[in-house]
Write a structure and sequence with these properties.
This protein is 33% helix and 29% strand. It is α/β, with parallel strands linked by helices and 301 residues long. It has 2 domains: 218 residues, P-loop containing nucleotide triphosphate hydrolases (Rossmann fold, 3-Layer(aba) Sandwich); 61 residues. The chain is elongated and about 75 Å long. The two termini are 24 Å apart. The structure holds adenosine-5'-triphosphate. Adenosine-5'-triphosphate binds next to strand 2 and helix 1. Adenosine-5'-triphosphate (ATP) binds next to strand 2 and helix 1. This is Sodium ABC transporter. Pfam families: ABC_tran (PF00005), DrrA1-3_C (PF13732). GO terms for molecular function: ATP binding; ATP hydrolysis activity.
């Protein structure tokens, strides 16, 4: 079942087409990556989903239909620009934000106490927000995002100011929320986090969808350009269709030219009498796919 359906949305600011017929669906209980280079249109897309902006055309369904006020309390949003009230104590600030989300005072106080303890912020609860470090403020904002137990969680760069220990804690938390059936949309430029966490993703560039689907499928689709071979002995000096050879621990990584199929390389090696211990198509990292799409010819898929 889809928690979010985005259908052919467009948005123009002045002369710039910022979102250009973007469509995707986010399923209940998944962590979904919303990716793209700076200025690609991710935040604008999120703002359209949250009904902060109206699209010029296209439709969005959230939690089973159009957005309304009641649904806004079923969503938790960690925006890119962090903003907590700076001149009040952390505890007062979080309680205030929880009340805005409709929690009763005792329930808000209980949940905030638990979260502060989990995030190692409990001893800092009486400090003014402005006296907290950037990472602490980010954790505090994450508490505010989740305090009302939202069904749909949208987090924009959730790891940006966090050290490795806190990064791990937030990753665990996002996984737990997924286990509890929550739906998570995550924007990040950190591709290894996407590889670790996301079930599916969409990649936007210049407002257009360039990639959409599950991570494994995407990596396989881009897989045919590199082969890992371990020959018993040397490789032939001349390998047609190979533009570059890198030494890998136990063998060689062959970078194929654009229209060369791995089978053609295998056939050639066998014909040359090369005995192989290993021959496999190497899956690219998401980082490599991202760079290829964003810097190269990259037509929408
Ligand atoms: N309110 C606005 N008025 C005019 N232009 C805007 C507005 N909001 C965003 N833009 C422009 O739209 C484009 C997309 O911006 P957006 O914030 O959606 O990108 P993004 O993918 O979130 O980028 P980043 O990764 O840098 O946060 C940018 O060129 C930006 O300058």
């Amino acid at each position: 079942m889809s928690t979010v359906k985005v259908n052919q949305i467009t948005k123009r600011f002045g002369n710039q087409q910022v979102v250009d017929h973007v469509s995707f669906e986010v399923q209940r209980g998944e962590i979904f990556g919303l990716l793209g280079p700076n200025g690609a249109g991710k935040t604008t897309t999120i703002r359209i989903i949250l009904d902060i902006f109206k699209p010029d055309s296209g439709e969005v369904e959230v939690l089973g239909g159009p957005m309304n006020e009641e649904k806004k309390n079923r969503i938790g949003y960690l925006p890119e620009e962090r903003g907590l009230y700076q001149d009040i104590s952390l505890e007062v600030c979080l309680n205030y934000l929880a009340r805005l989300k409709g929690l009763k005072p005792t329930e808000a106080a209980h949940r905030i106490e638990q979260s502060l303890k989990r995030f190692d912020l409990y001893e800092h609860r009486k400090k003014k927000v402005k006296a907290l470090s950037k990472g602490m403020q980010q954790k505090a904002q994450l508490i505010a995002t989740l305090v009302h137990d939202p069904e749909l969680i949208i987090v924009d760069e959730p790891f940006s100011a966090l050290d490795p220990v806190n990064t791990q804690m937030v990753k665990d938390l996002l996984r737990e929320e997924r286990e509890r059936g929550k739906t998570i949309i995550m924007c990040t430029h950190q591709m290894h986090q996407v590889e670790e966490l996301c079930d599916r993703l969409v990649l936007i560039n210049h407002g257009k969808v360039m990639l959409y689907g599950d991570l494994d499928g995407i990596r396989r689709r881009y897989a045919a350009r590199k082969i890992l071979v371990c020959p018993l002995g040397d490789l032939p000096a001349d390998l047609p269709g190979v533009q570059r050879i890198e030494r890998e621990n136990s063998g060689y990584l062959l970078h194929l030219t654009e229209h060369t199929h791995p089978q053609a390389i295998l056939k050639h090696l066998v014909e040359q009498g090369v005995a192989l211990e290993r021959f496999e198509v190497a899956l690219p990292t998401l980082d490599e796919i991202f760079i290829q799409i964003v810097t190269a010819r990259g037509e929408p898929l």
